[in-house]
Design goal:
CATH class: Alpha Beta
Strand order of the largest sheet: 1-2-11
Largest sheet: 3 strands, mixed
Shape: globular
Structural class: alpha+beta
Number of domains: 1
Order of helices and strands: EEHHEEEEEEEEE
Radius of gyration: 16 Å
Number of strands: 11
């Protein structure tokens, strides 16, 4: 999905619109291995992006870092969501409209628990979660980051290769 300075929907069908300078190309990826899913996304700048998009990218990237740091045994998905929302709120941002900031991952692409207020499921070693903050900006645009982590005995381990802080640029 692409749009000038960002995208306005996460899932849309194909169209005939060509990518243009200033667009953000959002690619949501996944695969299965022995029946287990992975689910992550990456954003690509088409040419030069504007300052508001660059700022939003930085906020959402930092919110992802906060979610990863909060993912540990004994924490809850509500704790992960609060860590991500705190970064976005401190930057004066509003969250996305998806209602959650990540989810469990395993034999289904989307499983409980959900990183959202009120989900008090206690995270335990071996659980796999997505860390997926999203932010609305620019009059109807949004940016989302998504990484996968497994909860370990003393924290979490990133299962995806971490997206760079600055968007990859394609011409």
């Amino acid at each position: 999905t692409a749009g000038a300075g960002g995208y306005d929907q996460i899932i849309v069908g194909p169209n005939d619109r060509n990518l243009a300078s200033g667009d953000v190309l959002f690619i949501d990826l996944g695969a299965t291995f022995d029946g287990y899913f992975c689910d992550f996304d990456r954003n690509f700048a088409c040419g030069d992006i504007d300052d508001e998009t660059r700022r939003t990218q930085d906020i959402v990237w930092r919110a992802t870092e906060a979610g990863i740091a909060a993912a540990r045994p004994g924490a809850t998905p509500a704790d992960l969501a609060a860590a991500m929302v705190s970064v976005m709120a401190d930057a004066g941002a509003t969250g996305g409209n998806v209602g959650r900031l990540g989810h469990g991952l395993g034999l289904q692409l989307t499983e409980p628990p959900s990183n959202m207020t009120g989900d008090e499921t206690v995270l335990e070693p071996g659980m796999v979660m997505t860390i997926e903050p999203g932010m609305d900006y620019g009059g109807g645009k949004m940016l989302v980051h998504e990484e996968n982590v497994v909860i370990t005995e003393d924290g979490c381990r990133l299962l995806t290769t971490r997206a760079p802080r600055d968007m990859w640029k394609i011409n």
